[in-house]
Each structure stands twice: as structure tokens, then as C-alpha cells.
Backbone:
């Protein structure tokens, strides 16, 4: 199981509440990051993003921009109600938290210590690895009847063909009127023709 600790960024760039918008944007640009944890005395106070800072200042070319960048402090625009993750949380829990709250990062805390940052890019890479999409192979969609043991039967058919199963994804949300649900299997072959024929011979819809 992939945990948050396996994918989080540990080399953190942080700012203090009194950091100016200009300084914070410079940190983002130099380190190619979009989110900065805001710490005071080692305690997490909030998170500021480059988008927050740009939205709070005049547009490029505006004569008032330089003054605003030097005047505005991170504390003025940071998000204080921060959703966090624990290093031992499953990566899919982090993904769901970002999806539900429409946020792009999760500070990772262990007790009171900030130990990492999990961004949407980190989570996406982890999920790609989790389903094996980064390896050569094929994707099969199999309609499983609503009866016990159908998934085990499909797996056995594939194994009998000597093909490795990389991942299996199934959801009851895809059930149709016949009570079937679509299950997505990633298999370690670029030519799944024989597997497909064997599954159809076993009366599974592909």
C-alpha cells in the first residue's frame, strides 16, 4: 500500500507570517513550487499559494504592483483553516481529501511537526504507480455479474494464460440494469488478444 510518506516532498521551503508577497513569489519561482507552508516558531499557521498572492496584487504592468508586493504580508492572504495529512495515511485518502476540498496540497504533519508536503502532482504520480499505468501493458474492462466469485474466476482465466495482473479496479457505481459492474484490470502484456478470447469463452463481456 502506498502511503503519504512514500510520495510527499520532504525538502520544504517555508515562510514566516511577515514574509512579503514579493519574497514569497520569488521563493515559488526559484523553487518551482506553488504552495508555501507558513510557520511561526515551528508551528504551522497556514498555507499560501502563488495564486493567492497574484490574486491579491495588481496585474503585471500596473504601476501599483511593486508597492503592493512589498506591502502585503503572507499573513494577510494565507489560508488558515488548513487540511493536513499524516505520513501513514493511505495515498488514496490524501487524493480524496484534495478532491473533496478542491485544494492542491496537503501539509503532512506528525504530531505538531511539519514533515512534508503532498501536492496534487505527488498524489497523481503515486496513483499512476498504484495502478501500474507507468509500465507497458494493456487495459481490460470486464463486466462482472453480481455473484460471488466472479472476480476470482476472471483472475484465474488470466492466470491460466500466463499473464500477470498488474492492478484491479472495481466500483459498484458502474452497475447496470443487468446487475453487472465494470472492473478495470491492467495486465502485463501489450497483446491481450488471447486473454480476451479466453474471457469471452468463459462468457464474460469485454
Residues:
Amino acid at each position: 500500500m502506498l502511503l503519504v510518506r512514500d510520495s510527499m516532498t520532504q525538502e520544504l521551503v517555508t515562510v514566516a507570517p511577515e514574509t512579503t508577497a514579493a519574497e514569497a513569489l520569488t521563493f515559488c519561482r526559484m523553487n518551482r513550487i506553488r504552495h508555501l507552508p507558513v510557520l511561526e516558531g515551528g508551528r504551522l499557521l497556514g498555507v499560501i499559494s502563488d495564486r493567492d498572492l497574484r490574486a491579491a496584487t495588481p496585474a503585471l504592468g500596473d504601476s501599483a504592483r511593486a508597492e503592493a508586493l512589498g506591502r502585503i504580508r503572507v499573513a494577510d492572504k494565507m489560508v488558515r483553516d488548513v487540511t493536513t495529512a499524516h505520513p501513514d495515511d493511505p495515498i488514496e485518502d490524501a487524493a480524496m481529501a484534495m478532491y473533496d476540498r478542491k485544494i492542491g496540497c496537503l501539509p503532512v504533519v506528525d504530531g505538531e511537526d511539519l514533515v512534508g508536503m503532498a501536492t496534487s502532482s505527488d498524489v497523481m504520480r503515486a496513483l499512476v504507480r498504484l495502478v501500474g499505468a507507468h509500465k507497458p501493458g494493456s487495459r481490460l474492462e470486464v463486466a462482472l455479474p453480481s455473484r460471488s466469485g466472479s472476480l476470482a474466476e476472471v483472475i484465474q482465466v488470466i492466470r491460466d494464460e500466463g499473464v500477470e495482473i498488474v492492478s484491479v479496479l472495481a466500483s459498484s457505481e458502474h452497475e447496470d440494469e443487468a446487475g453487472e459492474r465494470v472492473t478495470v484490470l491492467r495486465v502485463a502484456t501489450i497483446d491481450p488478444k488471447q486473454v480476451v478470447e479466453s474471457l469471452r469463452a468463459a462468457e464474460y463481456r469485454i
Summary: The chain is about 35% helix and 20% strand. The mean pLDDT is 89. The first strand starts at residue 35 and ends at 40.
